[in-house]
Design brief:
Strand content: under 5%
Order of helices and strands: HHHH
Radius of gyration: 21 Å
Largest sheet: none
Structural class: mainly alpha
Helix content: 55-70%
């Protein structure tokens, strides 16, 4: 029964903490309240509850958004270029495997 109990607990805590994360995330963007001071105070409190440093996260997350969808500098998905794929100028394959 401990297996069912811990999994039930983990499921509901995940649901609750996801909601907390969404509120904390919106504070970091300055979108939770018109007051940036309130956003920072409430975001700091919420991030402390999640054990995430608020101001450091806010800074690094802003850097992440500055590069979103940038082909070369993006952090989440940077597609391989032709050379890395083993392709020539016209798309012809130069090698059997990607480099």
């Amino acid at each position: 029964t401990w297996f069912v109990g811990w999994n039930t607990y983990a499921f509901w805590m995940g649901c609750i903490l996801t909601g907390h994360w969404v509120l904390a995330h919106e504070c970091g963007h300055g979108a939770f309240s018109p007051s940036q001071t309130f956003n920072d105070i409430w975001g700091f409190v919420m991030h402390q509850a999640l054990m995430v440093p608020y101001f450091a996260w806010q800074y690094s997350h802003a850097k992440h958004h500055r590069r979103t969808n940038n082909i070369m500098d993006g952090e989440s998905h940077v597609p391989n270029n032709r050379e890395e794929m083993g392709l020539g100028e016209k798309g012809e394959r130069h090698s059997g495997y990607a480099i």
